[in-house]
Every structure is written in C-alpha cells, then in structure tokens.
C-alpha cells in the first residue's frame, strides 16, 4: 500500500460542503462559532454540569499534531462530559500544548469542573472577526477516535457527529473536539 504512511483524516473543514451531509438537526450545532457551553445552556435553560473523565499530560497523536505544525509536543489533554443533570449531552476533548499554558493562561491548569468555554469566551478579543479553523466528522465504531471515547463512556452510540476547532487564547493554540450525543436533541 503506497499511501500507508500518509496522514489520513476523516475531518473536513466546515466550509468544504461536508456540513450539508450532516442531518439538518445537527448542522446548527456543528457550524456555530460561539461558545458551545452557552448555546447548550440557552437550549436547556439551565447550567451544564461538567464531569471530568480524564485530565493528564500526553504526547500528541499524529492527526492532532498537524494543528501544531507536526512538532512533537507534550500536551495537557482534558476530556469531559457536558451534562444536563445525569444526562450526558456532549463529550469534549481539549488538547492544550504545554507552551499554551504559560503566562496568563495558567488558569487552564485549575479548571476543575468549570467548562473551558467559560475561559475561551470570557472576553471578546480584538481579533474576534478572525476566522477559526473548524472541522467536522461523522464518527462510527471503526474510528479510533470513537473507540477511544467508548472506553471513557461505555454507552456511546455507534454513530455520532463531532466538530473540532483550533482556538487561540492570548495568542496560544488550543484544540477542542466536541462529540454530540443524541440526548442533546432530545432536550
């Protein structure tokens, strides 16, 4: 197989037209550019609960490393469930390079059960008109990403839509992936 070593990704930019393949009911969630936490809280008319599944230092995988110019980096990876009471609505994975935690971003080390969106969208930066890189993906049981999340959350449905966004916090990159669970539409 000549393409065996080539980096392959099922992730597609939102503006690539892939968004239109998603069911209409998911399109607004996949394409929204604001705070997902705020959008969900408005949708469910209550505060979200954040349940931390894992928060540890790791080495980037090859697919995620492309967002950081393929430089091998140690990162903090934080995986959480965003819940309405006992009902999980979203699984979120944040990849925060060690260099992004320096200086004024050290508060990222003390998030606890606070949503990352509260920090990312706390203030409108001067560059708020700057376009962010956002991609979407349809995950199934064959995807390593789905398999990873299924280990953390065993009742994961077999097919899901997800998005990931490369944000800048005080000029430092943070990659956030959000996997939408069917309960979100049922609320």
TrEMBL record:
Pfam families xrefs: Chor_lyase
Binding-site positions, substrate: 78, 116, 178
Biological process according to GO: pyruvate biosynthetic process; ubiquinone biosynthetic process
Keywords tagged on the record: Cytoplasm, Lyase, Pyruvate, Ubiquinone biosynthesis
A GO cellular component annotation in the UniProt record: cytosol
InterPro entries: Chorismate--pyruvate_lyase, Chorismate_lyase_/UTRA_dom_sf
Catalytic activity, reaction form: chorismate = 4-hydroxybenzoate + pyruvate
Domain of life: Bacteria
Main subcellular localisation: cytoplasm
Pathway involvement of the protein, from the record: Cofactor biosynthesis; ubiquinone biosynthesis
Recorded GO MF terms: chorismate lyase activity
Enzyme Commission numbers on file: 4.1.3.40
Localization: Cytoplasm
Family: Belongs to the UbiC family.
Biological role: Removes the pyruvyl group from chorismate, with concomitant aromatization of the ring, to provide 4-hydroxybenzoate (4HB) for the ubiquinone pathway.
PANTHER family: CHORISMATE PYRUVATE-LYASE
Protein name: Probable chorismate pyruvate-lyase
